[in-house]
Amino acid sequence: MSTQAETNRLAVIDTDSGFITVLTKRLEVAGWHHRVLSTPVPPDELVAMKLNAVVLDMAALGPDAWDYLERVCGMLPELGIVVCSGRSTVAQRVRALRLGADDWIGKPCHPEEVIARIEAVVRRRRRSRVQSDVGPLTAAELEIRPDQFQAFVSGRSLELTRREFELLQLLAEAKGNVLEREAIYQRVWGYSMAHGDRSVDVFVRKLRQKLERGSPGWRYIHTHFGIGYRFDPESLVADGEIAMTEASPPATPEGGAPGEEQMTPAAGEPTAS
Amino acid sequence: MSTQAETNRLAVIDTDSGFITVLTKRLEVAGWHHRVLSTPVPPDELVAMKLNAVVLDMAALGPDAWDYLERVCGMLPELGIVVCSGRSTVAQRVRALRLGADDWIGKPCHPEEVIARIEAVVRRRRRSRVQSDVGPLTAAELEIRPDQFQAFVSGRSLELTRREFELLQLLAEAKGNVLEREAIYQRVWGYSMAHGDRSVDVFVRKLRQKLERGSPGWRYIHTHFGIGYRFDPESLVADGEIAMTEASPPATPEGGAPGEEQMTPAAGEPTAS
DNA sequence: CACCGTGTGAAAGACCTGTTAACGCAGGGG
DNA sequence: CCCCTGCGTTAACAGGTCTTTCACACGGTG
Question: What's the pLDDT score for residue B136?
Answer without folding.
Answer: 87
